[in-house]
């Protein structure tokens, strides 16, 4: 497969990934990520399997069921896609709305995400700022 075709496939996968993130996060995990994964958000999560990912995302949904993401920009190169985005929702504990910018560096293999390194300003989301979700 040519580099251009691979990049196009990965960009299409990112658009499905964000759609599932906003509509069915568990489908996002099962359909977008490879079985062996490394998902890291420094200081917050370090995930190596889908079961753990499902548990953490369920905790996030419980805290912010209306949480959504919007892609502002993306750059694809070879097997990598870099996403600049905004995450927003309502904190269930306080009822306040929040919004935080974030960036993800995704690495793909055969159309599936194998590494996801996400960086966000956790101080702008009340529930997340005091969490460490990976134990």
TrEMBL record:
Gene3D superfamilies: 3.10.450.50
Any matching Pfam family: SnoaL_2
Residue span, SnoaL-like domain: 14-114
Source taxon at top rank: Bacteria
Stated name of the protein: SnoaL-like domain-containing protein
